[in-house]
Specification:
Strand content: 35-45%
Radius of gyration: 15 Å
Number of helices: 2
Structural class: mainly beta
Number of domains: 1
Number of strands: 11
Largest sheet: 7 strands, antiparallel
């Protein structure tokens, strides 16, 4: 997953199919269902505990891959597991949940890495698609990930800003 699209690849890294986030929610849900070989569970909006006006949730494997439809921001895809059904779930920075991305984080421009705990961890933008969010937030927008102290990635999200982790 990059900051602007989802890509399925062979084990050798050869692209099979892509879908741009601009194609919309239905296209992204169909793409994920095909790539993951499974239809999503649809979680009623009333059951979603979130701070960002989630109006619909599609989930594969519990929380392995989730697509949240947000009233003010289109939709956001989140990976919280390294794989689902034998399919690797990775960001375009070539890391998955559980991988150590400390070196990637350390090499980022300051405006892409937010280390609020002063412990070499925090959310970071791994694939900038815009300098500002469509809703006016003035930090980088695209593919983001959450790094834990020690360097392990705990979640990968796109498209969003680092606000994805502050609910």
């Amino acid at each position: 997953m990059s900051g602007s699209q989802l890509v399925s690849e062979t084990d050798g890294g050869v692209p099979v199919a892509t879908v741009d986030f601009a194609a919309g929610t239905d296209a992204a849900v169909a793409f994920l269902s095909e790539a993951l070989g499974s239809e999503p569970d649809q979680v009623p909006a009333a059951d979603v505990q979130a701070c960002s006006n989630v109006s619909a949730r599609f989930a594969w494997g519990g929380d392995a891959a989730v697509l949240d439809v947000r009233e003010s921001a289109g939709f956001v895809v989140t990976f919280r597991q390294p794989s689902f059904g034998g399919v690797a779930l990775k960001g375009s920075g070539a890391f998955a949940v559980g991988d150590n991305a400390q070196a990637f984080f350390d090499a980022l421009p300051h405006e892409h890495a937010f280390d609020e705990g002063n412990d070499d961890s925090g959310p970071f933008v791994y694939d900038e698609t815009a300098a500002v969010a469509p809703w006016g937030e003035d930090n980088a927008f695209g593919g983001v990930a959450m790094l834990q102290p020690g360097g392990a990635v705990s979640a990968i999200v796109a498209p969003d800003t680092t606000r994805a982790f502050y609910c």
